[in-house]
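Subject: Interface between my chains keeps coming out wrong

I've been trying for a while to get a sensible model of this assembly. When I model each chain on its own everything looks fine, but I need the whole thing in one frame so I can look at the contacts. Pasting all components below, labels as-is. Any help appreciated, I'm running out of ideas.
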Amino acid sequence: MGDPVDGPVDGPVIGPLPPGGRRVLVHVGAPKTGTSFVQDVLWLNRHSLAEQGFLYPAERFDEHFLAALDLLELPWGGLERQAVGAWDRLAERVRAWQGTAVVSHEILATATRQQVRRALESFGDAEVHVVLSARDLVRQIPAEWQENVKHRRTVGYGEFLDRITDPHRTGELASWFWGVQEVPDVLDRWGGTLPPERVHLVTVPKPGAPRDLLWQRFASVLGLDASALAPETNRSNASLGVPETALIRRINERVNNGVLRNEDYRELVRELLAHRTLSLRTGSPRLGLPPDVRTWAVDLSEEWIEVLTERGYDVRGDLDELRPDRIAPAFSDPDDPDRDDLADAAVEAVVTLLDEVARLQGTERRLAEDLEAAYVELERSRSLRFRAKRRLVLEADRRRALALALAAYRRLRRSSSRSA
Amino acid sequence: MSRVVYLHVGAPKTGTTYLQDRLAHNQAALRRRGVHYPIGLHASHFRPALDVLQQPWGGLQVDVDGEWDALAARVRRLTGRVVISHEILAAAKPVQVRRVMAGLRDSEVHIVYSARDLARQIPAEWQEGVKHQRKVAFGSFLRQVQDAKRVKPTLWFWRVQSLPDVLSRWSQGLSPDRVHLVTVPQTGAPRDELWERYCRAFGIDPAWAPEESERENVSIGAAETYLLRKLNRRLRQAGLPSEDYRRLVRELVVHQTLAQRPNMTRVTLPPAAHGWAEEVAEEWVEWVRGSGIDVVGDVDELRPLPAEDERWVNPDRPRRLEMVEAAVDALVALTLEAARRPDPHEQIGARIGRAARRLLPR
Amino acid sequence: MTYLQDVWSWQQHLRSGGSTSWREWLLTDRTGVAVPAGWSEPGAAQLEVVRRLALRRLGGPGSEDRPGAFADLADLVTSRSGPGRGLGQQPLAWGPEGTGSGHPGEGDPLSGRFPASTATSRRHRVGAPPVDPAEVPLEELVRVGVGALTELLLDPGAPPDGDRHSRRRAPAFGRMTGTAPFLLDGAPVTVSAVRQALAAAGHSKPGAASGVVLLAEPFDQALAQAWSARVQHGSPARWAGFVARWSGRLELPRSADLPTLARTWADRVGAAQVHVVVATGGVQEASRVAAEVLGLRTGRRATPSRQHGTAALPPAGVDVARRVNAVLGVRVAPPEREAALRRLVRTLPAGPARMALTVPGRFQARVLERAERLATAVREGGYPVHGSPGALVPGFSGLPTRPDLQDTLEVVLATCLGLARRPRSEGAVSGG
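Reply #2:
Try treating it as a single job with all components included. I did that and got this:
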């Protein structure tokens, strides 16, 4: 590691590059704090950024996710097989870069001390900075449960809350939750060996703040010109209302146990139903916290703020923003949702699926007709033999190219929903 | 006369689908016994019956001109017993009945009409409508039925279900012993009872048609029907083509999914309407007794059973949770159907490739 | 003494082969401990795994150890964390604030609950809750152990151990089975065991009769063997998940789908030539029947190697293998994955062909119904059946419904010790 950074820590720039000319910023989370947004901006602008000496080392947009799976040795529904060696490849590019490099994925937050050590050592002589973006717990808890549900889990909200509020944190669910959400602990694991001014905490503004304020904060940490990179990405992790989430959970109960394959679940339930249909429904009650859990979360937030104040990290934004709002909206329980709302959401979902199935069947029918026509042509060609045969083989190859393109497109669409 | 024609004219929702399917399955076996069920290449007598009625059918633009005459001509070439069966014939106007009879004038014609009590028919007809993308509420449907005239009716329901009216129209000029009323047994009767009654009416030994039918016009519960109505409304907005509606909604969602749900809450007549239904039944029973026609079964089966003890569930306000459960079932079925679709491009490209390569010189 | 000093000193004690528990360690007299700079403390689970290894080593053949082998193994375990999902890495429960180390007679040395490394964290409840290492859940010990085991399997410095021997013999066996003079199919572990028994008895070429023998096991056993076979081919599926997945589908794993298997063979050789041998009488009995049915002649005896076919592993052995598969999947590319898995299967303890495992209770009704249908299909399929098809319907009684976690841990520890004992090249132990 190089020497502590000179220069202002509150200003828009972290400071001049260290003597070795290498710096790496590791953005480790947390989920649901605008991480996918930042990743999209970096991905879409990676070429122009590179010209300015700023590296976002990625050949594919989920490269950092794969690298994180590798570092954490984390199975992810088979996806991890594409992750073999991904961290070392990423680190190699960071080491070879003169200037600033960024690594960003929200599941990195769960890394143990040993994994952090491996990660930091893999960056060679680059000056390491750790960045964590954080949002208040009262907004994070429901968001985490919703992510659970969208990843085909069936745990009820009440049970989820019971598990995460249990101080013993037994079980994977609680361990994962705290692994990504416990801000002081994440920063201790990742930044324990770094001077505090190289640990940057970006707080997520309260609702009602200017839309691009969060982006400005990120940009100030990364040392980028916020206005030059127009943050125009269409990927937003839209949230679901109470009845919509309850509906997805009910679907999960029915399609688990091998009934629906993972890729079909991703495409049909998560993408088509959750993201493209149910998240568009407005007017449903939003997910919140029941009063007792809210009180607990507010107290815990106070403790965190105290710890974080003492640690002296570089805060972009304001620690006050981690303090939940005083006013609590009425709590609507997703374990016992309004039946009418639930029924409406269900009908909406059925209609969407009917449409999709009809569309798929239509495509299939049209192709079957094409096939029929091709067979007819084939019959005719028996007399013409060679020329027609050649043409059909070419036609088949053209179709296969089309098929490959389609498959690639689908893969891309599926993976766009990958996140922690 | 060497030919007896049994003309089964309805009513709808009296096990006609099962009957027609079983006759079709056993067509050859029955022919060996001199019993003909002349459907030709079609699945039923729907087209000739529609030709008789001379009316459009649910958006279906079918050309059925001449279908009845063709059937009549075919019947005239047969000897022995002939069964013609379609439930929409019940709606025929007197002039149309005369046309039918004229086509069969050199045969001994028997009219067969099957009937079931109103407490079961009204919910069944309503549900059938909903399954054909109608969205009328049960309450409005019931009111329409109660308010409409039952003599010389204009409402479709009564045109096919008003027993005295249908039989008056169809039995013109026939002696009562050639008019047969088959009553549908009440719930709890042996499975084959209705089929055996039909056989008795047609003069067939049930053993001549041993192969059973799988087809049954299934019914769904109150919550499921409500879900379907909601869907119909939304699908109209979404503009789902009627061919897709038939295949996906009626077949996949209703028949294969919703109808299989256990413990459904049945759609029943509200207790308040029972008195009225009993009065109508009383009229029918009187009419049947006075007419002297042949009753296969028991005329008292036309009286509705007393309302059940359990609290009546309004089909227009079913238990929401049941409806949600039904919707989730439908969602799962549809999701699986969507997931079942293979990648068509890949498949077809490969198939063409294989076919073409077969022809290439090795 | 600080928390870090205590942890450091205990770690040193353990890596030298000591097996004193943490609780007792805090009661011993320990002074002048200097924690080296740059050392980061392991979690409770890692240190406890080292202690269990030390305990187990004392009871086993420790004398063959290469010098430093155990310390290397201990360093491997503490340098990496458990792979995959699990509990957060927990610190060790440590003496109450202010009393320093717990001296003998001062009450419970573990009464302080939150002894994490920074001052503020100690006052506030931040981080995973501390735990007495002796109380770390077995699942966590297994997870940490599996991480180390995988590392040992991937160790590039390790010699190719005993398999040089069997590799030389492999072609002979391959010639015998590769040309398939007789055909066995069905429950994969039983098939391999019967094949070996036949080879060992010198049976080779068929005489006048020829055909196919389908070795049938009770349906739950057939599923368990199918699971074992899948795992031995790289699947990371856990037993309950494997059963759940198949119970939600219409089709079955190929080897457990007896009617389809029989039909497929009947299409090729005729139904009369497909012999269903109900193998509930054990491998010897099934081998006798198979030899008789196939009209096998006695010939040159061969000693087949375990590495061919599906090895007979106890449920805990399969459980270890599936856990290792999950880690291998994210660690290395397919060829190395297969090599490491083959190495593991050779190293794991052998079990009887019949696995002591049945399906979890919630699947039993469905499995029973399915098994009855299979039995009926076999009975009515027109194949010669040797034994009672009724025996294909499982009884479930008394059999465990999942691998025992304690057994799994024992297998992990024993396998780690076995692999670590061999000589290894310098620098083979990599940090994390």
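Reply #3:
Confirming on my end. The mean pLDDT of chain A is 84.
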